[in-house]
Design a protein that fits this description.
- The chain is mostly helical.
- The protein has five helices and no strands.
- It folds into two domains: about 55 residues; about 120 residues, Four Helix Bundle (Hemerythrin (Met), subunit A), CATH 1.20.120.
Length: about 200
C-alpha cells in the first residue's frame, strides 16, 4: 500500500503525509489524555467540594452540639448547686433545732418552738424547702427523675411530719433523716450528670 502511494503521489508528499499522520496521531493521543485528565480533575474537584461541604456541615453540627452541651451543663450545675445548698440549709436547721432538745424531757417543753432563734431556724427551713420546690418545675428539663422524685418525697415528708405538731423533736429527727437521704441521692445524681468523671459515692 505504501508503494502504491509513492508511485502515485511521489516520495515527498508521502513523507509529508506520514509525518502529518504521525504528528496528528501523537497530537490527538496527547489531546485525549489531556481531556481525560481534565475530566478527571473536574470530577475530583467537584467531589472534593462536596466532601468539604459535608465536612463543614459535620463540624458545624458538632460545634452546635458542644455548645448546647455546655449550656445544659451550666444550667444543670446551677440547679443541682441550688438544690444541694438548700438541702444543706435545711439540714443545718434541723441539727441546730435538735440541740434545743438535748436535755432529758426537753422534748415535752412546748416553749422551745417559741424561742426567737428556733423560729429563725424554722423559717430558714421553710424558705429552703420552698426554693427547692420552685426549682423542680423548670428543672425537670435538666435534672434526673430520681432527683425530682426525692424532692417530691421530701416535700411530702415535710407536710406529713408537720401534722405531728405536738412532737417537734420527732418531726426534726424525721426530717433530718429525710433531708440527708435526699442530699445523698441528689449529690450522686449531680456527680453523674455534671461531672461524669467524679466518683459517685
Amino acid at each position: 500500500m505504501l508503494e502504491d502511494i509513492i508511485k502515485n503521489y511521489g516520495l515527498i508528499p508521502t513523507i509529508v503525509c506520514l509525518f502529518v499522520s504521525w504528528y496528528l496521531r501523537g497530537y490527538f493521543t496527547e489531546k485525549s489524555k489531556n481531556l481525560a485528565t481534565h475530566e478527571d480533575f473536574t470530577r475530583i474537584l467537584k467531589q472534593t467540594e462536596r466532601t468539604t461541604q459535608v465536612t463543614e456541615e459535620i463540624k458545624a453540627n458538632i460545634a452546635y452540639g458542644n455548645w448546647m452541651n455546655q449550656q445544659h451543663w451550666g444550667v444543670k450545675e446551677k440547679i443541682y448547686t441550688d438544690i444541694l445548698s438548700n438541702l444543706t440549709i435545711m439540714e443545718i436547721s434541723y441539727i441546730d433545732r435538735l440541740d434545743y432538745y438535748i436535755r432529758p424531757e426537753s422534748e415535752h417543753d412546748m416553749s422551745i418552738p417559741g424561742k426567737k432563734r428556733y423560729q429563725l431556724l424554722a423559717k430558714n427551713e421553710v424558705e429552703a424547702l420552698r426554693s427547692i420546690r420552685e426549682l423542680i418545675g423548670p428543672a425537670a428539663l435538666f435534672i434526673s427523675e430520681s432527683t425530682i422524685a426525692v424532692i417530691k418525697k421530701l416535700y411530702g415528708d415535710s407536710w406529713l411530719s408537720e401534722q405531728a405538731g405536738d412532737h417537734p423533736k420527732e418531726y426534726l429527727e424525721w426530717m433530718l433523716k429525710s433531708t440527708k437521704d435526699a442530699y445523698a441521692i441528689v449529690l450522686s445524681d449531680a456527680k453523674r450528670d455534671i461531672c461524669n468523671k467524679c466518683p459517685a459515692k
